[in-house]
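We treat protein structure as text, and this decision shapes the records that our systems exchange. This encoding replaces a full spatial description with a residue-level series of whole-number codes. Below, we set out a record of this kind in full and without editing:
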Amino acid sequence: MDRIDHLEHLDRHLVDELAQVARETIREELREQTRRQRRTALLYAASGAVALYAGAAVALAVGLALDIGLPDWAAALITAVILGAVAFFLRNVARPSASHPAPEHGLGHAGVVPGTADRNDVDPEGPHHRA
């Protein structure tokens, strides 16, 4: 019996070591994923801050420059289009896989799960259908 107890002890010790290695591996993988997600969040925040704070200064400068030769409304419109293009560019730079298409099993346009928005599900008596 002494030999069987010794083997059981070795088995438990081996299982404990394997569990510890698995925990450490998973912990390290989660740390790496967290680092990548932090970087992406930082890039999104930076693009938003640039669009907000620098956008005001750029809009003023561009608007004043365009106002020299154009009507006020045209200068404002051109300035808005330029700022929108810059914000769109910064958002695309922040995406980790901007060139890869979204997975098919994920969410569709506007956060709607494909196949769930059916015309039969819409309440015809709802406020958006009333004349």
Summary: The chain has one domain: 2-96.
